[in-house]
Write a structure and sequence with these properties.
The protein is an alpha+beta fold. A hairpin with a 2-residue loop joins strand 2 and strand 3. Helix content is 33%, strand content 27%.
Length: 150
């Protein structure tokens, strides 16, 4: 294995969407996977650094995963926040330290951006929760609630 991490470019959209489809099969979103909408949202992320950044995880240059870092602002958490919005590594590459390294990259990028906190959401029962805890993430006794505005 020759693992590398690189900032995704707009030209990487199709490779990322292929990986996102694989992720959706394994761990379906709580919202429908509307590919035209996902494609539009991904393009914004790839083109606007103020929104965040997308990173490809590659083996010998071939994409095998991705991690998205997005930003918000919270008085409760003390200012600018960063979110691991999406994170996926293909099954054959799991358990090899790749995910932990990707989370360290996200943490470093969040720090460089001036974020006060790095957050993520994880489905109950997802085995990756152990990785997140080992990486220093703590659960809050809260539920995520959403009201759609469009």
């Amino acid at each position: 294995m020759s693992i590398s991490y690189r900032a995704a470019q707009p030209s990487d959209a199709e490779s990322i969407l292929r990986l996102m489809r694989a992720f959706q099969v394994e761990d379906p979103w709580s919202v429908p996977f509307d590919e035209p909408e996902v494609r539009r949202s991904l393009q914004v992320l790839l083109e606007d650094p103020g929104v965040g950044s997308a990173w490809l995880i590659c083996d010998a240059g071939r994409p095998i995963g991705y991690i998205f870092l997005c930003f918000d602002y919270s008085v409760e958490f003390g200012g600018k926040g960063a979110w691991v919005d999406e994170f996926f590594v293909q099954a054959p590459y799991r358990g090899k330290g790749i995910g932990g390294e990707a989370l360290r990259l996200a943490e470093e990028l969040a720090r460089q951006s001036g974020a006060c906190a790095l957050h993520l959401q994880v489905s109950r029962g997802n085995p990756a929760i152990h990785l997140y805890r080992r990486s220093g993430f703590q659960a809050h006794q809260r539920d995520v609630m959403t009201k759609w505005l469009r």
